[in-house]
Amino acid sequence: MVKTFNKILDAIEKAVITIDSILLVIITIIVVFQVIARKLNISMTGTEELARYAYVIFAFLAWPIAALRGTDVCVTFLFDKLPGKIRHAVLAVFHIAMSVFAGICVYSLIKNIENAKGIIAASNRWLHISWVYIIVAVGLVATVIFNIVRCVFLLTGQAVYISQDEKDAMELEAAKEAFEKQHELEKKGE
């Protein structure tokens, strides 16, 4: 069951990475096109707005994946000072709080989707604002779910949070072992 669940999560992650990669390329092309147009004194309406909405979609699709993998942005200084099990419990509470926050945002977005029906973007007449809100709402629903999943993973030991000090110690140990292996190979070669 856990393997199947992880396969589903991996498939979702790959799909989001693909979509976000495409969005990032589109954003880059739009911004470069906009800069070139400005240098040529060509007025471009809609490109900035389109890039902005693409970035919003990019961010709200990526957020649940970051939360699930434990790579979301958070200040870890305090977490890093706590012992392992306490650290996991505090992070689990953090993920629950993020789920509640995202849930409140979903509720607000549902109200905004209802209010935004029929409203189109100012410069891009084909883009309905409610479409953007729907995509953001889907991302936030996934954020709620994935934060809860991450919380469960932390509490059951299926996910581990390694402090920066622990990462540094592991990297130092790995570098030391690599240096010692290299030194041994050099001794044998002499």
TrEMBL record:
Belongs to the TRAP transporter small permease family. It is a multi-pass membrane protein. GO terms for molecular function: transmembrane transporter activity. One of its GO terms (cellular component) is plasma membrane. Keywords: Cell inner membrane, Cell membrane, Membrane, Transmembrane, Transmembrane helix, Transport. The chain crosses the membrane at residues 15-38, 50-68, 88-110, 131-155. It holds the Pfam family DctQ. One of its GO terms (biological process) is C4-dicarboxylate transport. This is TRAP transporter small permease subunit. PANTHER family: 2,3-DIKETO-L-GULONATE TRAP TRANSPORTER SMALL PERMEASE PROTEIN YIAM. It is found in: Cell inner membrane. Its main location: membrane. Coiled coil: none annotated. The keyword Transport applies. Residues 27-152 form the Tripartite ATP-independent periplasmic transporters DctQ component domain.
